[in-house]
Write a structure and sequence with these properties.
The protein is mainly α. It has 9 helices and no strands.
Length: 226
């Protein structure tokens, strides 16, 4: 008889902790957005990190036996067709009646339902379910907060990229020119990321100089010019 009050108290503590975490997270996110209001690339990078962390967490709780097999596949499917698609199209804005919003709402419902029936012992792993539920529905709120206030900034550099990720994948499969452009963009992003990291860490700069002749020549010229 004493088990029910313990479970109820545990549930209340979990819910209160999650609400507190969401409140702090929204406050920190708002401060970050205020400092990077006109830097959509950096905002997108941070949201991509969030998506990666939550996806790894979901795979982790599946590996620990907290969820049934199909929930991991649902998580990956929603992360790819939902989260990744939204990030690739950020900061383009979409109406609530658009297919973009309808699709993402349907994916959120699918993921919630999958975890509601896919937990291996719902009561025993209630905290894990509530955690997934809260951040699953909080992520779209953070995404909406990140959209620029100025309508002129709610567009992509190339409107042709404001398409569903499945269309992007199809283009890569059938168009060699698209694959070449994707490779060039990814390579440029990788080198810019390495350059930024090397400016922040002497250790990373040393590793790059040892492993990459291109970076070694670049820094040698830079030192000589100084």
């Amino acid at each position: 008889m004493a088990y029910i009050p313990i479970v109820s108290l545990y549930t209340i503590l979990v819910v209160l902790s999650l609400f507190a975490a969401v409140g702090v997270g929204v406050w920190l996110w708002g401060n970050f957005l205020d400092r990077n209001e006109h830097d959509p690339a950096r905002i997108r990078a941070v949201m991509f990190l969030m998506l990666s962390v939550t996806t790894v967490w979901e795979l982790g709780i599946h590996a620990a036996g907290l969820t049934r097999g199909y929930t991991a596949w649902v998580s990956l499917f929603v992360a790819f067709w939902g989260g990744l698609d939204a990030l690739l199209r950020f900061p383009a804005a979409h109406d609530l009646e658009s297919l973009f919003c309808v699709k993402h709402f349907a994916l959120l419902m699918l993921k919630t339902l999958a975890y509601a029936v896919g937990m291996a012992g719902f009561r025993a792993h209630l905290a894990a379910f509530l955690t997934v539920f809260v951040y699953t529905w909080a992520m779209p709120v953070l995404y909406a907060m990140a959209l620029p206030m100025d309508p002129c900034e709610q567009v992509l550099r190339n409107d042709a990229n404001d398409v569903d990720i499945t269309v992007r994948v199809w283009r890569l499969m059938v168009n060699r020119h698209e694959r070449r452009n994707c490779y060039v963009k990814c390579r440029g992003w990788w080198y810019r990321s390495l350059a930024d990291a090397s400016e922040q860490s002497i250790l990373i700069r040393y590793v790059l100089c040892v492993t990459s002749p291109e970076h070694r020549r670049f820094y040698t010229k830079k030192v000589r010019s100084v």
